[in-house]
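Dear colleague,

As promised, here are the two records you asked about, laid out in our usual form so they can be pasted straight into your sheet.

NAME FIELD: protein one
SEQUENCE, THEN STRUCTURE:
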Amino acid sequence: MSQNTKPLDPSSSPRAMLGAELRYHREKKGMSQGELGQPLFVSGAFIGMLEMGVRRMQPEFAVKFDEIFGTEEYFFRNCEVLKKSKYPDHFAEAAEAEATAVMIKEYAPALIPGLFQTPGYAKAVFYAGLPTATDDTVRERVEARLERSGLLQHPTKPVVWAVLDEAVLRRVVGGPSVMAEALRHIAALVRSRRIIVQVLPFTAGGHPAIEGALKLMAFEDAPKLAYLQGFESGQLVDDPATVIRYELAYDLVGASAMSPEASLALLESVAEDYAHEEQQP
């Protein structure tokens, strides 16, 4: 695989700074990405993602880099700083990768994707999912989730395409008024042509992604990633063959879903139903 020689911008984030330093020391030592990956039992592509700041450097890798380059504890110390995140451990690296993606595809089986959530909906999700959490903890989680939606402030990047299971629309999270606001928000994003949304109806029956949530991320100069999320857990996948299988699953789900036009009509119709339900005495 060819080396990624795109100029790096160390000022864009602490992770990018550490990646730029990694490339600097690797090239200074005359090593290819594949050669550096061998003693760590990772691919050259993975080293490239570390250098681009797409993947988070883990402490065990940082220790090995310090040994190889003779940088004392430079990489380890900075790696420890990067471990601090506003996101749960199982999602932190995925959130960081999401922020650099040029295309995001997501299948949501039960909840509105975090990028689309309104404050009221996110608050209801966290109070339901963290029944013993303090108000401060919930507020921090909500703020972090809403901060992610800042990605959608750019008019065109990243491209975001989501397939929502019909259960996402029908599961009442936070009450009718919260649901009406949440679905109208998604509809507004669709009507502004900022996102693409399809609804997978109950009548579609079984499908390849029926076992859980799936997020696919593509990058300008790095291999694609897949993120699988479960109960208080998540897995970031970079194996190319596995990512291809997940892409096929997503495409098949999209093929079984309603068209974007019909999906928008259903979103707005269900939102109106919730609004009328809230108005009932």
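NAME FIELD: protein two
SEQUENCE, THEN STRUCTURE:
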Amino acid sequence: MVVQLTALMRSIKNKSGQIIKLVGTVQDITERKEREKEIFDLAQFPSEDPYPILRVNRKGVIYINDAGQKLLNVVESDQIPEIFQESVKNTFESNQISESEVELDNRVYSFIITPIKDADYVNIYGMDITERKHVEENLKEINKLKSEFLRRASHELKTPLISIKGFSDLILSLYANQLDPVIISKVREISDGCERLQKIINNLIETSRLESPELKPKVQKEDLSFLIKFCVHELESLAETRKQSMKIDILNDLYVNIEKEEIHDVLSNLLTNAIKYTPPMGKIEVKTELEEEFVVVSISDNGIGFTEKQKTKIFQQFGKIERYGQGLDLGIGGTGLGLYISKKIVESHGGKIWMESEGKSKGSTFYFTLPIIR
């Protein structure tokens, strides 16, 4: 299968204004191109096309096929149908392809308005996308039900978990000197297991919350430089237990509009992962750079890195990469939700998040951007 992509490149500059790195985003446009090809093939014989095809100039309709006449109740020399007037005007002004969706006769149609080079008219190609819209709506409903199930199940699990955790801690505090060491060890395992399960439940609740389309972060002006230093300080002791070095190279007075607690969670998650997946004596570095209207935060390590296959999974929901039992200095914990949650948070703040790694055992760098206040 041939995949068609579109790429957007942006430059990252240092303090002197020199370009030191190029960062790109890639979008899969295969489906759009296939749809355009289908329309193009049908347009070779527009009179036979089962969907509406129009050619219009700034004054009115130059050509319309039979399907268009029946659906739109329009003939040649008529004015441009009202449903297209604004889109046609924008297409003439921008000279860019535009697309609009219209409901006609209880069916949903997609109309692609295409400017013609060196010509004072545009072509309008219509397609019936009713079935596709039904599938999309069904998928949205399924996703909504899934989120609701996760939310309810997580809350239902919380009550018995609090009881188990509470009683196990009570036993440890009141009877630690009276019980057999083996029993005490088992009770501690119960308590530790409760803490791991509590983190999983909290992640599930946060995931269902972030998937709400109505969700908007409650932002206010904050000093990102201070927040980064605070998060690093919080986790320094964890890095010290693994004899890792943490270096900070950040700009001062980086003011951004954010919900502080959410961006704190993103930074803590990325830093914790860097510490967890970097061997003892490893190095971790936190940097910031300015790129046009954004600040770019990067967290680099010389840890275990990622393969090309693993890179495709890391920001997916439940995209946990299993590393336990592979001879690495790692525990079992983790749900594969941390980076998914981080992605949702950053995007809700108008930023982007991505990672780079040259391969297994070659470290990795996670980046995220936030709009900056000048």
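A couple of things worth noting about protein two: The chain has a mean pLDDT of 83. The longest strand covers residues 19-28.

Best,
R.
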